[in-house]
Amino acid sequence: MMAEPREMKENKLWHRPLIIFITVLIVVGIIALVTTAVVQNKALPKKYKYGIVLDAGSSHTAVYIYEWPAEKENNTGMVRQTHSCNVKGKGISSYAARVKEAGMSLKACMDEAKGKIPVRRHHETPVYLGATAGMRLLMKENETQSEQVLSSVADFLRGYPFMYEGARIITGQEEGAYGWITVNYLSKNFHQERSTMGALDLGGASTQITFVSQLRVESPENSLHFRLYGNDYQVYTHSFLCYGKDQALRLTLAQQLQTGDRHLSDPCFHPGYQQEKSVDRVFGSPCVSTSLSRPTYANFTLNGTGNAKLCQSNVKRIFNFSSCTWGRCSFNGVFQPPVEGKFGAFSAFFFVMNFLNLTSSSLDESKEKLEQYCSKPWDEVKQSYSAIPEKYLAEYCFSGTYILALLENGYSFTSDKWRDIKFLKKIGGSDAGWTLGYMLNLTNMIPAEAPDAPPLPHSGYVSIMVLFSLLLAALLLLLACKVFGRPTCAQNKYVI
Ligand SMILES: O=P(O)(O)OP(=O)(O)OP(=O)(O)OC[C@H]1O[C@@H](n2cnc3c(O)ncnc32)[C@H](O)[C@@H]1O
Ligand SMILES: [Ca+2]
C-alpha cells in the first residue's frame, strides 16, 4: 500500500466530523419524516354525529336515531340507524279532537332518545318530524285541526335539548323519493356503475312506487331527477293516497255495502269471523267517494266467508282501469312506465307477506297459499297464532289479497317480474322507509358529485413513506461514502 501524502491525510481528518454531522442530519430527517407521516395519518378517535327523525304515519309514529362518523359524512353508506322507538297508541292524526295530547304522546320515545345520544351532542343533533298520509287526509278534512296537531308536536319537540328542525306534512312525492334514496343508500347502490333498486312502500293510508325508468316519464308530477355521487338518475314516483291497506279496506267495505244489506258476507275474512262494525268508521273517511251511497243504519255485521278468489274480485273493484290519458297507466288514470329492475318492498308489504310466509314464493304459489289461508276457520287461526294481536290477525287475508292485486293488477308485476321483488324490513340493520333519505337530504349528506377519495389507504400510505425514507437513507449513505471515501464504507476501505 502506498503512503498517503500528508496534505490528503489532513483533509480526511476534518472530513470525519462532517460525515458524522451529515449522517446525523439525514437520520434526524428520516425520523422526522416518518413521525410526521404516522402522526398525520393516525386514525383519529372516532367522533360520531347523530340525527333524529320522527315518522308520523297514519297508523303510528316511530322515532329513529341515526349515527355517523363525523369525518365521513359525505361517503355513501356511512349513516346507520342505532335505535328506533314505537310511540304507543295511534298516529298523530288521531289526536284531531284532542290536539293538546298529540305532543305528549311522543314523550316516552323522546325521553328514550335523550338517554341514547351522548349529552355533549344533544345541542347539535337535528330533530325532524315528517307526517304522511294520515295528516294529508286530516288536512283535507279539517285544515285547522291538522295545523293544531302539527303545532302541538312542534311545541313539544322544541322542549328538548336537541336542534329542532321542523315538523311538517311531507308530500307523497317526497315520501316516494326518500324511500328510494334510503334503500339505495343502504344497499350502497350509488357507488359507481351499480344499478339501483325500486322502492315499494305500503302504509296504512297511502302506498308509494318509485323506480328508475329508461322510458320517458310523461307526467311531470311523477318525474324526479337526481344527481347523486356523480351519477344522474331519472326516477318515476307515485304516491296513491287512500291506497294504504287500512283505507283500501274501507274502500272495499264501502263498495260491498252498496247492496243495502246490513249483513255483509265478506270473502276477505275467515269463515266464522263475525264483527259488528260502524258505518261511520267506513264512510267517515275522506277516501270513501261521495258518489257511493251511505247506508242509513249506524252499524253492520261482517261475516267472514274466507274465499280469496271472491275477495280478489271485490278488491279489484277499488282500482279504476277504465280511463287513461297517457301512453300507459297503472290505475285511476295515473301514468306509469313498465316496472324495471329489482324492487325492495317494505313496511306493510313486508309485515303481511312475511306473516303469510310468501316472501320467497312465486305469484302463482302466493295465490294458492293465500286461498288456503283465507279458507281456514277463524277459531283455528286464532288458536294457531295466539300471540298476534287480533286486529292484525283478522286482516291478513284481506291484506295479502290486496297486496297481490295492487302489485299484479295495479302496477303490472307479471309472474316473471314477481321474482324481482324482494320483501324486506331492514337493510344492514337500518329500517327501510323514507326517514333516512329525508335526513340525508336535509343535512346535505348526499353530494351531487362523488367525494374525493384518498388515493391510498392509511396503511399503504405509511408503508410507502417508510420504504421511500429508508431507500433515501441508503442512497444518501452510499453517496456520502463515495464523496468522502471513509474506511467505514466496506468497499472503499480496501480501495483507498
Ligand atoms: O305511511 P302511512 O300511510 O302514513 O301509514 P304508516 O306509516 O302508519 O303505516 P306503517 O307502514 O307503519 O304500517 C302499515 C300498515 O301495517 C299495519 N301493521 C303494522 N305492523 C303490522 C304487523 O306486524 N302485521 C300486520 N300489519 C301491521 C299498520 O297497522 C298499518 O295498517
Ligand atoms: Ca309510512
CATH topology descriptor of the largest domain: Nucleotidyltransferase, domain 5
Cofactors and ligands = inosine 5'-triphosphate, calcium ion
User: What would CATH call the architecture of the largest domain?
Assistant: 2-Layer Sandwich
Number of DSSP helical runs:
17
Low-confidence segments, ≥5 residues, pLDDT <50? 492-496
* Percentage of β-strand residues: 15-25%
CATH class wording of the largest domain: Alpha Beta
The CATH superfamily of the largest domain is identified as Exopolyphosphatase. Domain 2
Gap between N and C termini, in Å? 9 Å
Shape: elongated
- Domains (count): 2
Radius of gyration, whole Å: 34 Å
Number of strands: 16
Strand order of the largest sheet: 8-9-7-6-13-14
Question: Mean pLDDT, rounded to whole units?
Answer: 91
Structure characteristics:
single chain; 496 residues; alpha/beta; Nucleotidyltransferase, domain 5; 6-stranded mixed sheet; 5-stranded mixed sheet; 17 helices; 43% helix; binds inosine 5'-triphosphate; binds calcium ion
Verbal overview:
The structure is a single chain. The chain is of the alpha/beta class and 496 residues long. It has two domains: 47-169, 2-Layer Sandwich (Nucleotidyltransferase, domain 5), CATH 3.30.420; 172-431, Nucleotidyltransferase, domain 5 (2-Layer Sandwich), CATH 3.30.420.150. 43% of the residues lie in helices and 19% in strands. The chain has 17 helices and 16 strands. Strand 8 and strand 9 form a beta hairpin. Helix 1 packs antiparallel against helix 16 and helix 10 packs across helix 13. It is elongated and about 115 Å long. Bound molecules: inosine 5'-triphosphate and calcium ion. Residues 57-60, 91, 132-134, 203-206, 244-246, 347-348, 351-352, 355, 392 line the site of inosine 5'-triphosphate. It is a multi-pass membrane protein. Keywords: ATP-binding, Calcium, Disulfide bond, Glycoprotein, Hydrolase, Magnesium, Membrane, Nucleotide-binding, Transmembrane, Transmembrane helix. ATP binds at residues 204-208.
